[in-house]
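Please produce the structure of this protein holding zinc ion.
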Amino acid sequence: MTTQVTDHRGGVWSIAVPIPDNPLGHTLVHLLETDRGPVLIDTGWDDPDSWEALAAGVTACGFALTDLHGVLITHHHPDHHGLSAKVREASGAWIAMHAADTAVVRRTREATSDGWLGHLLDRLTAAGAPEEHLAPLRTARAGGGGRRMPGLRAALPDREIVPGELLDLPGRRLRAIWTPGHTPGHVCLHLEEEHPARHGGGFGRLFSGDHLLPGITPHIGLYGDPQPEDGADGADGPGEAADPLGDYLDSLERVGRLDPAEVLPAHQHAFTDAGGRVRALLAHHEERLARLGTLLHEPRTAWQLATAMEWNRPWAEIPYSSRTIAVSEAEAHLRRLVKLGRAECVPGPGPVRYQAVDAAP
Ligand SMILES: [Zn+2]
Ligand SMILES: [Zn+2]
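Below is the modeled complex.
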């Protein structure tokens, strides 16, 4: 295996940690040197090859795994937090995460597959999913009720990343910027130090996780996650009134105002002109919301909206699991349009239908 390590200078490296069977290819785990030893920003997918790549990468940066002092997690997704338990085991490093994502990790550890599938079934039914999409979930629920979720092994963090505060990293100035949207507790980390190459305008470098990526937009769905079984009635879970797309757009503006000289994202590659990328993403989402508003001149369920939205391929070619994710994205857009007063629920029985408020020509 070839180890892909990039020296970004000034005591910052990135290690490309592969994500098995995923078109994204790899997670860029960043290593930041501090006076108390190196810390990692994210860890990568929990897989033997990924672990090997991470360990080799730490060595290539000139450190031993046992030197690692801490782990900062941008958000709870398995391509970022997957190897955290292994790192802690190997080094004794602490793991820090925003409280909102730590809560997701805790709920996932406590959830059973039965509770999780029930929650998903309720949500998809309310969204108007057809029987052929619901049936496999019912079968799985009937066959495997009570089993624990695979997320059980995700490490419970032992420190909290507090928004706006400098992290306790001797010799470095790294500030936590809360950027909810992709997950409720996503954070970017701003290295408030002169850029070693001083290219472009702006100040410092931003570890942006999945929030700001050079060539792709992160998935924004509802903040639904496995609920404890007794909370699985779909009506009272945390995040039911949340507006993740609204949060994400606010978070984009927050990061744009920081004006970092360079962005070090967790996928793809480092880039400059954060402000330009933020403006492009805001315009993209505004355009998409406008198109959805047009589609809602005819009342539609979230499922019907998802099938009519533009994706990277025709709906008929979207695989089963991606359809569930697509519907969650349609729901996040509906939530935003309702909050903006541009769409509303149509009263009636059955799955909830929405229509545009400005439906007049
Ligand atoms: Zn993610
Ligand atoms: Zn990711």
